[in-house]
Amino acid sequence: MRTTPGVTRASHTRRRTLSGAALAAAAVLALTSCGGGGDSAEPAAEVSTQPARAATVLDTPFTKPDLTLTDTSGEKYDLVKETKGHPTLLYFGYTNCPDICPLTMSNIAVAAKSLPESERKDLRVVFVTSDPERDTPKRLGSWLRGQSPDFIGLTGDFETIQAGARSVGIGIAPPKKNKDGEIESTHGAQVLAFSPKDDKAHVLYGEDTSVDAYTEDLPKLVKGKTP
Hints:
By secondary structure, the chain is of the alpha/beta class. The chain has 7 helices and 15 strands. The longest helix is centred in the middle third of the chain and has 13 residues. Keywords: Copper, Signal.
């Protein structure tokens, strides 16, 4: 895994606020290459010279992407409709990622286990692939079951996925072969947390967010509170 030069990585001190517009301008350019060497397909962006925080609270929340994709059962899944009124964590990544994607999903899975059963069932954790050509519904289902049977996996047309990601400030680039022959998918590594109260993302988590940080914040997020 390589982080685009010039982009400040997230650490685990607590919250800051940032406008959705400012975040979109920065986060679309803050891409992480998982799966091999090579530079980002998009230019680097300087997000901050100060240590980033685990929870970035947005003063202008993001609207949930209007995406209808295919779930791990091969059925159509309308993201807005199916997650309406539910606390939702949204992440864009891919199953062949060797590091940050499985770590992020694992951290969320461990943290979710600390919730009461009713709140855990209400939570929607949605993983949208940035590598739909290889991430078939079957492949996504198998991979996500290794993380949590409750997680939702979505695949579909790359351009549709890319447009949906960019609408919430997450940049992804088409998968490509690097010099070693490995296929890498360059994607933003942020997790967006959507409130069940208005179905908007008020909080964003960076790639270094720990199990402890998610464990601390999830009880608030499921109730529609800002951590």
